[in-house]
Amino acid sequence: MKVKPLPTKEELDKKYLYDPITGVLTSRYRGSECKAENVKGYRVVRIDRVEYMAHRVIWVMMTGEDPCELEIDHENQIKNDNRFINLRLGTHGDNQRNKNTRGITKDKGKWKARVQRNGKNILNKYFDTEQEALDAVKKRKAG
């Protein structure tokens, strides 16, 4: 994945204030919290007409380092929770492991069980109960 280089810590510190306890990023220019979210629910900021993910900006402000090709994972999976304690640096694979690993979702009044192996669905089926779906996922993952 090609990522845009982020501004330096010094440039960001001139434009923003960040509270690592609350996760609030505030524009020094406007004096208000940066609340804009992209379509995926992540907070974003615009700097010189370029949009950046707020959690990546925050990482630079806190560590002084551009994460470059690495990703910033929201440990609790809440995309707009930018408290520094909730952010961690990792690879794409690390970030993917933080997703729903149960393999089931509620869909259209039924429980959908889904398991993938090597990018292909090996289980994609609906069940009446959550337990039936969990059992099917467990069986498929073991086999």
Plain-language structure description:
The protein is of the alpha+beta class and 143 residues long. The chain has 4 helices and 9 strands. The protein has 2 domains: 9-97, Homing Intron 3 (I-Ppo) Encoded Endonuclease, Chain A (Alpha-Beta Complex), CATH 3.90.75; 104-142, no CATH class. Strand 7 (104-107) and strand 8 form a beta hairpin. Helix 1 crosses helix 2 (54-63). The model has no long low-confidence stretch (mean pLDDT 89).
- What is the CATH first-level class name of the largest domain? Alpha Beta
Oligomer: single chain
- State the helical fraction: 25-40%
Percentage of residues in strands: 25-35%
User: In angstroms, what separates the terminal alpha carbons?
Assistant: 33 Å
The strand line-up of the biggest sheet is 7-8-9
- Can you count the beta strands? 9
Q: Which spans have pLDDT < 50 for at least 5 consecutive residues?
A: none
Sheet with most strands: 3 strands, antiparallel
Helix/strand order, N-terminal first: HEEEEHEEHEEEH
> What is the arithmetic mean of pLDDT?
89
Whole-number total of structural domains: 2
Tell me, briefly, the overall form.
elongated
SSE-based structural type: alpha+beta
Number of helices: 4
Computed over alpha carbons, the radius of gyration is 19 Å
CATH architecture type of the largest domain:
Alpha-Beta Complex
CATH topology (level 3) name of the largest domain: Homing Intron 3 (I-Ppo) Encoded Endonuclease, Chain A
